[in-house]
Amino acid sequence: MKILVTGGAGYIGSHTVKELLRNGFETVTFDNFSSGRRELVPGGKIIAADLMNLGAVKDVFRTHDIRAVLHFASLIQVNESYSNPRKYYVHNITTSLNLLEAMLEAGVRIIVFSSSAAVYGEPREIPIPESHPKDPINPYGQTKYFVEKILQDYDRAHGLKFASLRYFNAAGADPDGRLGEIHDPESHLIPNIMLSLLGRKPAFEVYGTDFPTPDGSAVRDYIHVTDLAAAHVLALHKLLSSGESDVFNLGSGTGFSVLEVMKKVEETTGLKIPAVIHPKRRGDVPILLASKEKAELKLGWEQRYSDLRTIIETAWKWHSRRP
User: Fold this and answer.
1) Beta bridge partners of 28
2) What is the CATH number of domain 189-221+253-321?
3) Residues of the chain under the 50 pLDDT cut
């Protein structure tokens, strides 16, 4: 069975391509390589094209027997979405609408969507369940929420079935060392720590030590990228078998503060992190923690790599070996 993976050369997309191939699927990776890396795609067909080009999207469905879609391609920098909201609204929504139009024309009715915990906004309860009110506080989160609403409307109007997967903090790297995290600019906590340790970035920047948390730094829920990839394949199987649309949180259900992560990195690597303290950033909340029970119950999802030590060990292995 052939699966189209948009953004399959990105961090989570490439890990998911590997998981799809391991499970016997054929893959077609569709990526414009604006941020993804061709060398990260572990196999299958690769098409260099842009989802903003509706004709190019339709051509993929005309020339390949696509049965389902995994949609990762989007702009993801929260701070940039504040400074340039138009870019995010135009790109993230238009690309999704183009993809859905091409799917309907080709008779493809199954999509797994890469969403985000950013759809929830300020947490009103911890851990956050899927039923939590959706009130995004940044344009990036708004675009993810809007695409979720579009998918609901397309389900009602066209019978297009979807699974929307709301990530918390993706982290770590392929345990085999083949794949890992590359962003430019890099905005994620653990790779920024690694790059600082390796002298590839200046001192690691800690944003906020006055949150209402035990040590004053922000607490986040970290989920290993390989476990995320496995959840996508499980969601795909569920859609192929039952055809019922649904939304799922993907998190570990356990929170660690920035300072706790730093301490664990120092224990794991034996190195001291050069760090500087800054005020908290706009939109940062004290604690983000997922309720993961629904994904475990309905998808049969099990986390194999999401303890903090394994996340850090795999990330360190990846970053320290990169030239």
Assistant:
1) 4, 45
2) 3.90.25.10
3) none
